[in-house]
């Protein structure tokens, strides 16, 4: 019986996970950025 050689050696590499992770990180950055802008507009300093 002939062996089939895959470039990924039979492992499953999900690609959608990276898309969801990227969306999550971008959302976090945008939310923290909006909080930062609100604090600056109110004149709050640390």
Layout of secondary structure:
Elements: H1 16-42
The gyration radius over C-alpha positions equals 22 Å
Biggest sheet character: none
What does the overall shape look like? rod-shaped
Uncertain ranges: none
Q: What's the total count of β strands? A: 0
The N- to C-terminal Cα distance equals 70 Å
Structural class: mainly alpha
Helical coverage, percent range:
55-70%
Strand content: under 5%
Give helix and strand order, one letter per element, not per position.
H
Q: Please count the helical segments.
A: 1
Q: Overall mean pLDDT score?
A: 83
3D structure, described in words:
This protein has 1 helix and no strands. It has one helix spanning 16-42. The mean pLDDT is 83. By secondary structure, it is mostly helical. The termini are far apart. 59% of the residues lie in helices and 0% in strands.
Notable traits:
single chain; 46 residues; 59% helix
Summarize this structure briefly.
Helix content is 59%, strand content 0%.
């Amino acid at each position: 019986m002939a062996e089939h050689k895959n470039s990924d050696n039979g492992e499953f590499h999900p690609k959608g996970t990276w898309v969801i992770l990227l969306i999550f990180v971008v959302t976090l950055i945008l939310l923290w950025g909006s909080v930062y802008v609100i604090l600056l507009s109110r004149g709050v300093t640390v």
